[in-house]
Structure formats: structure tokens, C-alpha cells
Amino acid sequence: MCRTRETLSHRLKTKAGRALYALRKQTVEPVVGIIKSVMGFRQFSLRGLRKVTGGWTLVCLAWNLKRMAVLRL
After folding, report:
1. Total H helices, total E strands in the chain
2. pTM across the whole model
3. What is the C-alpha to C-alpha distance for residues 41 and 61, in angstroms, rounded to an integer?
4. What pLDDT does residue 8 have?
5. Distance (Å, rounded) from C-alpha 55 to C-alpha 66?
6. Number of C-beta neighbours around residue 56 at 10 A
7. Could you report the average pLDDT of every consecutive run of 10 residues in the chain (73 residues)?
8. Could you say which DSSP state residue 73 is in?
9. Phi and psi torsions of 28, nearest 5°
């Protein structure tokens, strides 16, 4: 993880560093935004990593089923 400007500057001078930094342009936020706004999922009701992982899996399953139903029509 970059801590200083010098570290980031050095990293951007290398080919591998530029390729890694370019990955930040990829975004998954539209799906997360749709899950939050359309599906109304804004917070987890359970505590603990295992339970939250299970809850997120169910949310993703619901999104994928909804998406498949739309694409099938």
C-alpha cells in the first residue's frame, strides 16, 4: 500500500506500477448502487464475518436471479 507521494511517484514510473494503477479505472459500483437503490439493501442485519458473507451471498443470488429473469424475456 502506498504511504507517501514519493512511493506512489516511484511506483508510477514502472510499467508494472502503471498497469496496477490502471486497474483502478475498472468499476463495479453500478451493480452495488443498483443493489442499494433498487433492491433496498443498505445494511446487514447479522453480525460476524461468516453471517455477513452468507447474507451478501443471498443478496448477490437475488440480483443474479433478477438479472437472469430480465435477460430471458
Report:
1. 4, 0
2. 0.55
3. 13
4. 77
5. 17
6. 13
7. 73 85 76 85 91 93 92 82
8. -
9. -115, 5
